[in-house]
Design a protein that fits this description.
single chain; 368 residues; alpha/beta; Rossmann fold; 2 domains; four-stranded parallel sheet; 15% strand; heme biosynthesis; lyase
């Protein structure tokens, strides 16, 4: 198998470090064509759908893509912002703020980049760009706090597939999960307390995590257990009793049984049982996206109200909350131990020299 061409090497240059924040992905636009292209890439991943490839090909191309693309595009249209997809906007902002937070902590030789597992900017594209910039140590940090083979495992597949085509592979570190990290749990706690302080507290806190097929749990995927550990730790931080909250799972797809209880019918049943107000948060999503803004804040809200509920509160994701940026920095620091993350005066001088050389090369290329 041919390898990619290596960038020019400058002897004596500073070895650079990078951390790549990787999120799921999003269509480029809320259009049928863009959504179809995104869904095709997403649903073609064998980590996401574990159905024999030949059978799934016919289902995907003859049923799913022709009929679901338009419906999904309409949903994306409802949550799209002037700056684009909320997931992309929040991920980009988180990366920039994480860069600033690490620099404030003295880690001035870490470059923070961001990528999408599906869609743009693609993970392979970002990794190739970092290599061209001289980065030789890379930490991969998924935006998923809880590990699942369907999410984090798929990121590892993409990372290894890319480097299978690279001759000079950088040093790699992989952040598997942080579902029980104090910085993450404390950021969730602060987000909920701030909402309660501003809006009062509901009768029940619903913690809705993204669902996966039940068979993944039976086959050894730790996702279900990690979601419940997150919920338990968060409840402890909030001093909630077991009756004060419930863990549910959303976004069920297809006819197979998924992790239960399902969010929408559970919330509707709470309303039928006489609860007037519920508060709903999605701890597994660190950025607001289609699944939180449309599914939870619109669809599930309608089901709650149709069942007799009167006061439905969606608590936004962590997004750019200062506590979460600080938590991300703490997680990053723990996985960067042993790497030189602070530049000496001589290294800063080398950085300036390399930048000047790069600028001269760019001017020469422009002149040509």
């Amino acid at each position: 198998m041919p390898f990619q061409k290596e960038p020019p090497h400058t002897h004596g240059s500073v070895a650079r470090n990078a951390l790549v924040l990787v999120n799921l992905g999003t269509p480029d636009a809320p259009s049928r064509r863009a959504v179809r292209r995104y869904l095709k890439e997403f649903l073609s991943d064998p980590r996401v759908v574990e159905i024999p490839r030949r059978i799934w090909w016919f289902i995907l191309h003859l049923v799913i893509l022709p009929f679901r693309s338009g419906a999904s595009a309409a949903k994306y249209e409802m949550i799209w912002t002037r700056d684009g997809s909320p997931l992309r906007v929040h991920t980009e902002k988180q990366a920039a703020l994480l860069q600033a937070a690490l620099e404030e902590r003295g880690h001035d030789s870490i470059k923070v980049a961001w990528a999408m597992r599906y869609g743009a900017p693609g993970l392979a594209e970002v990794l190739a760009r970092l290599k061209a910039e001289g980065v030789d140590r890379i930490a991969i940090m998924p935006a998923y706090p809880q590990y699942s083979g369907t999410t984090t495992g798929s990121i590892w597949d993409a990372v290894f597939a890319h480097y299978a085509t690279v001759r000079n592979v950088p040093e790699l570190r992989l952040v598997k999960h942080y579902h029980d990290h104090d910085g993450y749990i404390d950021a969730l706690r602060d987000t909920i307390l701030e909402h309660w302080e501003a809006n009062g507290r509901g009768e029940k806190l619903v913690m809705s995590f993204h669902g996966v097929p039940k068979r993944t749990l039976l086959l050894g995927d730790p996702y279900h257990c990690e979601c419940h550990k997150t919920a338990r730790l968060l409840a402890d931080r909030l001093r909630l009793s077991p009756n004060d909250y419930i863990v549910t799972f959303q976004s069920r797809f297809g006819r197979a049984e998924w992790l239960q209880p399902y969010t929408a019918p559970t919330v509707a049943q709470l309303a039928r049982d006489g609860l007037r107000r519920v508060d709903v948060i999605c701890p597994g999503f660190t950025s607001d996206c289609l699944e939180t803004l449309e599914e939870i804040n619109m669809e599930v809200r309608r089901e709650f109200e149709a069942a007799g509920g009167q006061d439905y509160h969606y608590i936004p994701c962590l997004n750019e909350a200062p506590a979460w940026i600080a938590g991300m920095a703490e997680i990053a620091e723990q996985h960067l131990i042993g790497w030189p993350t602070m530049m000496s005066p001589s290294q800063r001088e080398a950085e300036r020299r390399d930048a000047a050389i790069g600028g001269e090369r760019a001017e020469q290329m422009g002149a040509v």
